[in-house]
Design a protein that fits this description.
Chain lengths: ~325, ~350
C-alpha cells in the first residue's frame, strides 16, 4: 500500500476509472496539459489522450452544458469546476438540468455526472475560492453530495461517484489536498455513497462533522479526553443522502450531540441533520443538539478566516455546553 | 468620435418570393415532387394541429402551449433537411420539429399537460426534451455533438432558440464550444421579432443575430424564415459544413401569428395590426402553396384531405393523452434517482399509504 495525499488519491481514482470504462471523460479548465491547478488530473491526458482528458474554453456554463449533452449520449463526464465559487456560473446545468434529466424524461435519459470542485477555507485563497456551498446542493432534488475527509475515502468515494448513475457533487477540501498522507490501497475499491463513518468512538457525546471539520473535531475530542469526556466523532462523508441511521445509533449511546460545519450556520447540513435527529431520536436526547458553524456572513477575507471558521476550541466549547445542559 | 462599427454584410437568403415565384433558382434545393408535396403536407398538418392545440388549451385540455403558426417554414424546412439520426435540441416552441423527427404527438400533449410520460422520448428518436431555460440547449448541443463525434457517427446536432435567446450568455458559450472543438453543430435562431413582448431592437445593437457567428469564428447565415425552401437549403448546406467540423449559426427571419403562449399573453399590447397583416402576406403556407399549385403539385382536394387527416389524428392523439393513467407522487419520487435513497423511500411510503391527501 502506498502513502498518498488526498490529491494523489483523487488522481489515482480518475486514472483507474478512465482505464476501466471508455465512457468516462475528464474535462474542465486547465485539466488537460497542465493537469489541473492542483494537479488532480496530472498525467491523465498523456496516458488517455486528448479525447478523454481535455481542456475546455473558460466558461463554466459551457462546461456544464457539455457534460449534460454528453450524458445523453451515454458518456460519464467527470467535470472539474476549478474553484467552488465559479459554480454560480453553472448552476443551471447542475441544478436546472442534470438534476432533473432522469425525472423530466421519465428515465429515458439520466446524468451519470460527477462535478468535482475544490472548496474550503484556511488556505488564504482569493475570494469565491473557498466557500462551503453544500447547502445549496443538498436542497436540490436529484443530486448527491459527497465530501471526503481523507485520502482513502476520497479515492473510494470518487470511484463510487463516477460509477453512480446520478449526478454527484464532489467537494474536495483545499486544506486536505496535501496536509497529510494515508495508506491507500492500490487497486480498485469503493466507499459507498450514503454511508457515514465513526472515526472515533466515545460514550458521552456525538460530534457530527464532515470535510476538514472532521479533523477539527478530532482535535477537540483529544482535548476533551484530557478532561475525561469521550466524544464519538462521525464523519458524514455523504451530505445527501445523510446516513441518519449511523447518527441515531450513536445518539442512542451518547444521548447528546453537536454538529460541526465549516459553512455558515443557517439552513445547511447541520440544520438538516438536527431536523432528522428530531424526527428519529428526540426521546434519546438529554440536551438540545447544537451547531458549531461559521457566522452567517459571506466567507471571511483571508485576514480573519481562521477566526471565522470553527476551531477545535469552539468545538470543545460546544461539547461542554451540550454536556452541561 | 467618428467610430464606424464594422458592418457584416448579410442578405437574407430566399428561394421563393412571398407570391411563390422562384427568385433564386441557383439555391433551389434538389427535392423531388413527392418531397415537395410532403413539405406542404407537413406545414398544413402542423397549422391544423396548432389551431386545434390553441383551442384545446383554451378548453383546459392542454397545459402550457406555445403556438407555432407563422413559423412553420423554419420549423418544417429545417427538420426536413436532417437525417433521422441527427439530434435536435429544442426550445419549448419547437414541438413540430420533434414530432416530425419521430416524437409521438400524444406525448407532446402529455408534456403540455404536465405528465411525465410526455418526456419519455422513445428509444431511437434523436431529440432532447423541449428546453424551458432559454439558451440551455445551446450549451448542451456541443455535448451531444461531441458524443456523436466520439462514437464515430456522421451526424449533426441542431439547437433552436429565438431572438430573445440570442441575448443569453449560453448562446455565445454554446457556439464558442462548438467552434473550439470543431463540432457538428447547427444553431438556428428563429427570430420572430419578439421575446414575449420585448422587440428585437431592444435585444441587441447588433444589426443581425447571424453576425454574432463572426465573433465565434463559425459560419453565419441569414435566411428568410417564411420560405420553407430557403430554410431547407440553408440547413442542408450547414449540415455538410458541420460534418466537416465547421458549425453554422442560422438566423431565420420569421413571425409568430399568435401569442407567445396560451398562458395569458395578449400580443395586441405590443404589436400593431398593420405589422401582423404585413407578416401574414409572407405566410409560409401561402407562398409554398402558390409555388406548388403553379407546378401542378398541389390542389384544393389535397389540402382538404390533409386538413381532415390532421384533425382526425389530433383528435386521436389527444384522446390517447387523456386516457393515459395519471402520474402518482410515489412514481415521481422513484424517478428522481436510479435507486431511491432511504429518506425518499420514507416519503414515498407516506404518500403510498394515502397520507398525502
Amino acid at each position: 500500500m502506498a502513502q498518498l495525499t488526498m490529491i494523489q488519491a483523487i488522481n489515482e481514482a480518475l486514472r483507474l476509472e478512465l482505464k476501466r470504462d471508455p465512457n468516462v471523460l475528464v474535462f474542465g479548465e486547465d485539466v488537460g496539459h497542465l493537469g489541473g491547478v492542483f494537479r488532480a488530473t496530472e498525467g491523465l491526458q498523456k496516458e488517455f489522450g486528448e479525447h478523454r482528458v481535455f481542456d475546455t474554453p473558460l466558461a463554466e456554463s459551457g462546461i456544464g452544458g457539455l457534460a449534460v449533452g454528453l450524458c445523453t449520449q451515454g458518456f460519464r463526464p467527470v467535470m472539474e469546476i476549478q474553484f467552488i465559487g465559479f459554480v454560480f456560473e453553472v448552476m443551471d446545468s447542475i441544478c436546472g438540468q442534470a438534476s432533473r434529466l432522469r425525472y423530466r424524461s421519465g428515465g429515458r435519459y439520466h446524468a451519470p455526472l460527477v462535478i468535482r470542485t475544490p472548496f474550503g477555507g484556511g488556505v488564504r485563497a482569493a475570494e469565491l475560492h473557498t466557500d462551503s456551498l453544500e447547502g445549496l446542493f443538498i436542497q436540490t432534488p436529484g443530486i448527491k453530495v459527497v465530501c471526503p475527509s481523507n485520502p482513502y475515502d476520497a479515492k473510494g468515494l470518487l470511484i463510487a461517484a463516477i460509477r453512480d448513475n446520478d449526478p454527484v457533487f464532489f467537494m474536495e477540501h483545499l486544506k486536505l489536498y496535501r496536509s497529510f498522507r494515508q495508506e491507500v490501497p492500490e487497486g480498485d475499491y469503493t466507499v459507498p455513497i450514503g454511508k457515514a463513518n465513526v472515526v472515533r468512538e466515545g460514550r458521552h457525546v456525538t460530534v457530527i462533522a464532515y470535510g476538514a471539520m472532521v479533523h477539527t473535531s478530532l482535535r477537540a475530542a483529544e482535548e476533551l479526553a484530557k478532561e475525561g469526556v469521550e466524544c464519538e466523532v462521525i464523519d458524514l462523508r455523504t451530505l445527501m443522502p445523510i446516513d441518519i441511521d449511523t447518527i441515531v445509533a450513536s445518539i442512542r449511546k451518547t444521548n447528546r450531540a453537536i454538529v460541526v460545519q465549516e459553512a455558515q450556520k443557517t439552513a445547511g447540513v447541520a440544520a438538516e441533520v438536527i431536523a432528522q435527529i428530531n424526527e428519529k431520536a428526540i426521546f434519546h436526547l438529554e440536551a438540545p443538539v447544537l451547531r458549531v458553524a461559521a457566522p452567517d456572513t459571506v466567507y471571511a477575507f483571508a485576514q480573519i478566516e481562521d477566526e471565522w471558521m470553527p476551531t477545535p476550541a469552539r468545538v470543545a466549547d460546544g461539547v461542554r455546553k451540550v454536556l452541561e445542559y | 468620435m467618428g467610430y464606424e462599427v464594422r458592418k457584416v454584410e448579410l442578405e437574407p437568403l430566399q428561394v421563393l418570393s412571398p407570391q411563390g415565384e422562384v427568385v433564386d433558382p441557383a439555391r433551389m434545393p434538389k427535392l423531388d415532387d413527392a418531397q415537395l408535396r410532403e413539405l406542404m403536407r407537413r406545414m398544413v398538418f402542423t397549422r391544423v394541429w396548432d389551431q386545434r392545440a390553441v383551442s384545446l388549451s383554451r378548453q383546459g385540455r392542454l397545459g402550457f402551449y406555445a403556438p407555432v403558426s407563422g413559423q412553420e417554414g423554419t420549423m418544417i424546412g429545417s427538420e426536413f433537411a436532417l437525417d433521422k439520426e441527427d439530434w435536435i435540441c429544442p426550445g419549448y416552441r419547437d414541438m413540430p420539429q420533434l414530432v416530425w423527427h419521430g416524437y409521438p404527438l400524444y406525448q407532446s400533449f402529455l408534456y403540455s399537460r404536465g405528465h411525465q410520460h410526455g418526456g419519455q422520448i422513445p428509444e431511437g428518436v434523436c431529440v432532447l426534451l423541449p428546453q424551458i431555460i432559454i439558451g440551455a440547449q445551446y450549451v448542451q448541443a456541443p455535448g451531444v455533438a461531441m458524443g456523436l463525434k466520439l462514437r464515430g457517427k456522421r451526424n449533426v446536432v441542431v439547437a433552436y432558440t429565438g431572438d430573445g435567446g440570442s441575448s443569453q450568455g449560453d448562446f455565445y458559450e454554446g457556439m464558442n464550444f462548438a467552434g473550439a472543438f470543431r463540432l457538428p453543430c447547427i444553431f438556428i435562431v428563429q427570430n420572430n421579432g419578439y421575446a414575449i413582448s420585448t422587440p428585437r431592437s431592444k435585444q441587441s445593437m447588433a444589426e443581425t443575430i447571424a453576425q454574432k457567428a463572426v465573433a465565434a469564428g463559425i459560419r453565419g447565415v441569414l435566411v428568410d424564415g417564411m420560405d420553407v425552401l430557403a430554410v431547407y437549403a440553408a440547413v442542408k448546406e450547414a449540415r455538410e459544413y458541420a460534418l466537416e467540423g465547421l458549425p453554422t449559426l442560422i438566423e431565420a427571419l420569421t413571425y409568430r401569428f399568435g401569442p407567445h403562449s396560451m398562458s395569458g399573453d395578449d400580443p395586441t399590447k405590443y404589436r400593431t395590426k398593420e405589422e401582423l397583416s404585413e407578416w401574414e402576406q409572407k405566410d409560409p403556407l401561402v407562398r409554398f402553396r402558390a409555388f406548388l399549385k403553379a407546378k401542378g403539385l398541389w390542389s384544393d382536394e389535397e389540402e382538404e384531405k390533409t386538413i381532415e387527416e390532421a384533425r382526425a389524428f389530433v383528435n386521436d392523439q389527444i384522446r390517447k393523452a387523456e386516457e393515459t393513467p395519471p402520474m402518482t407522487v410515489p412514481g415521481l419520487i422513484d424517478s428522481m434517482f436510479e435507486t431511491t435513497p432511504p429518506h425518499l423511500e420514507e416519503q414515498k411510503a407516506w404518500f403510498a399509504a394515502g397520507e398525502g391527501r
